[in-house]
Amino acid sequence: MTPDDPHDVVVVGSGAGGAMAAWMLTKSGATVLMLEAGRDYSPDEAPMLNMAMEAPLRGAGTTDKAFGYFDATVDGGWEVPGEPYTKAEGSDFIWWRSRMLGGRTNHWARNSFRMGPYDFKPHTRDGLGFDWPIAYEDLAPWYDKTEKLVGVYGTNTGLENHPSSGPGVLQTPPKFRVWETFLKAGGDALDIPVVPARRAVLTKKIDERSPCYWASSCGRGCGIGAAFQTTTSLIPWAKKTGKLTIATGAMVRNVVLDASGKATGVIYIDKATGLEKQARGRVVVLAASTGETARILLNSGAGGSRDGLANSSGQVGRNLLDTVGSSINAYFPQLEGRPRYNEDGAMGLHAYIPFWDYQKIAKGEVDTPRGYHVEIGGSFGDPGLGVGSGLDGYGSSLRADVKRRYGARINFTQRGEMIPNAKSYCEIDTNTKDKFGIPVLKFAWEWSDHEYNQVKHFQASMKTLIDKLGGTVVGEVKSPKEAISVGGEIIHEVGTCRMGPDAKTSVVNSFGKTWDVDNLYLTDGSVFASKAHKNPTITIMALAMRAADSIATRLRKHEI
Amino acid sequence: MTTQKPIVMIDRRVTLKWLGGAMVAGQLAACGDQAKGITWPEAAAIKAAGYGTDIDFQNINVPWPLTMTQVELETTNDLVDLILPGEDSLPAPSKLGVPAFINEWISAPYEDQDKDRKLIVPGLAWLDDESRKRNGVAFANAESSAQKKLLDDIAFKDKVKPGLEKPAEFFGRIRSLTLGAYYTTREGWAEIGYMGNTPGTGDYPGPTPEALAHIKGVIEKMGLTYTAP
């Protein structure tokens, strides 16, 4: 089939949510047309073992490639030429986009932490934000299926609000490295857990995908299929069914409805020709990313109405959330001069610090209502351009200093839950259009004291841990307001089309179906009702799998 | 460069340097920290194209022209080898292409590199100028002892000679770039003991027995409990 033919389902987006929907639907026998704004991509082109010295500027990040020369991102970044976004006065928000098949799954950190029972009912627990219309138990089987399909390493820790996966679901995690073992000793003494992380990286072969070979940053893309991305898994699998058609360079502008109010497809700009085209399907699934999905809906209003489509609740674009981020670096003299060995490992977290203070929150003993986890980095990695930071003088003593200090530094990165607030949202900027003539998004953003207090809790806790291990903080610990990330910076934006119990207060039901249009579904991060501290991708995929299963059933029954 | 003294020794190398210096002077507009008694010219802007947002990794190249003058390169050459002198089997930075890297870096059409360019190009000019004032010759032509004496005024953060804060900032930056460029080479990896970027099969082997015994000792000496991974 070609993109001009009507398909059963039109899926907008090829990242975590779009590719999962496409795989599930093609597997069930439906024909799917996938529209991707960027170019075709396969990690066969990933520069997996190239040394930094082969790259211009030793691979340092630039405005062309913010995460470095070898990062997988194609035609993306904080700014995309010809595709601006604007900010409300006094707001700072940055928006990462990847214009390529597979979207942001090509370079994500692969951290895959399940949301727990508390995370689905935050309002019930503390009166803030919104509950999800489903409980953890509703999603648990879908997490199991997703984790098994994707391939996730980790262990079941039994810790509060960090649920276990089903038997045989998780793959064996890689061993702790020396500095992680060191950190665990400090954590054990303070009752701060340092436990195996969960990442979507294979340690055992599944299907045609190889296990990790313990080298090459996952962010470059993984040509051997070990680090999960949709371009080595869901998309090729969906293609193999013979039911998937992909149109790349297809920038979607709006959803099209018929007179009865049913979606019949979408209008997109074919970048190669500049022509407007219509994609037609019985069902439309938007998984274009939290920002782009809201933008498409808001640009789909009847007669150009600014209210947009599927927005009778007025919630499209509201509740914009990102992860609370901050970090502390510390230097540990006790790690100086330790024996060398290869610490590359899985090129990411082997261990992490899950949130541990839920009991104190319940008792009102800490002034932050929601938790965070800590991602830790250290290792004898590629020394990189930063190897000389903190050094002084010149001459042969410098060589000794570099060697002594190598592998003695650990950075602690906070990843925390933000509570929805009325001042963080996106809307259409009626004065600005992109190069395709599509009105762009304007972002408004504000953190609240909840988030600042959480940063304070993180800083104090890490300081205690660093002290326990005889380390010193590198640089000054900034005030929470200075230390906190810029909105969007952690690239975990979710929430702009939240799910809920009814059409009055939410955009979609728990299956991602818009309340207002019976055959229009959303399967990306936009549907999140809250943003737990857990990285969102695995939850996006579990929700998309559950939604697609429901769509497939309804298609089979000819309900849509 | 307006305060440069006449060059005494005239040989071909020096002439080239002098010509190079004149070229630099042409590129640079004097300004800046004159009040502090140092010459700190402004570096010309870069207008080249970058490598773009869609890289062909089969054809990696540096698309922008390199902008350092011969004089700047020679000064850089001496400077990086003073920062990290070669020793026995350990090559000096100039032997590992570090000056060329710094040239590539300060010639790049990106924001961060532009900041460094505005620090490094005038910094190199200052170094020559100061050397001429003190020793009557450009930095690269000065005796190594005289070069070190000059660096002693800017290389140690607690002992920066008053008024030379800007040159000290320049030195700190070029030191950082030198170390970064040096230790990202195979020779640098071998020296520092980086053993990665090597694909393996089977499970991740984890720390060696020696590395574990060491950290166990460290942990227990601190009165903490060691847990084997």
Summarize the structure.
The complex is a heterodimer of chains A (560) and B (229). Chain A has 560 residues and is an alpha/beta fold. Chain A has helices at 16-27, 117-120, 122-126, 136-150, 178-190, 234-240, 290-298, 358-362, 396-405, 449-468, 480-483, 537-556; strands at residues 7-12, 32-35, 86-87, 195-196, 244-247, 250-257, 263-270, 275-286, 324-331, 351-353, 372-377, 409-416, 425-433, 439-444, 472-473, 520-522.
Question: How do the strands and helices of this protein lay out in sequence?
Answer:
The complex is a heterodimer of chains A (560) and B (229).
Chain A: E1 7-12, H1 16-27, E2 32-35, E3 86-87, H2 117-120, H3 122-126, H4 136-150, H5 178-190, E4 195-196, H6 234-240, E5 244-247, E6 250-257, E7 263-270, E8 275-286, H7 290-298, E9 324-331, E10 351-353, H8 358-362, E11 372-377, H9 396-405, E12 409-416, E13 425-433, E14 439-444, H10 449-468, E15 472-473, H11 480-483, E16 520-522, H12 537-556
Parallel strand pairs in A: 1-2, 1-8, 2-5, 3-14, 8-16
Antiparallel strand pairs in A: 4-10, 6-7, 7-8, 9-12, 9-15, 10-11, 11-12, 13-14
Chain B: H1 12-27, H2 70-83, H3 98-106, H4 111-135, H5 144-152, H6 165-182, H7 186-192, H8 209-221
Helix pairs in contact in B: 1-2, 2-3, 3-6, 4-6
Report on the architecture of this protein.
The complex is a heterodimer of chains A (560) and B (229). Chain A is α/β, with parallel strands linked by helices and 560 residues long. Chain A has helices at residues 16-27, 117-120, 122-126, 136-150, 178-190, 234-240, 290-298, 358-362, 396-405, 449-468, 480-483, 537-556, and strands at residues 7-12, 32-35, 86-87, 195-196, 244-247, 250-257, 263-270, 275-286, 324-331, 351-353, 372-377, 409-416, 425-433, 439-444, 472-473, 520-522. Chain A has 2 domains: 1-48 and 69-154 and 219-318 and 424-446 and 494-560, FAD/NAD(P)-binding domain, CATH 3.50.50; 173-196 and 324-416 and 448-483. Helix content of chain A is 22%, strand content 16%. In chain A, helix 1 packs parallel to helix 12 (537-556). The model of chain A has no long low-confidence stretch (mean pLDDT 97). Chain B has 229 residues and is an all-alpha fold. Chain B has one domain (12-192). Chain B has 8 helices and no strands. In chain B, helix 1 (12-27) packs across helix 2 (70-83), helix 3 packs across helix 6 (165-182) and helix 4 (111-135) packs across helix 6. The interface between A and B is large, with 82 and 74 residues.
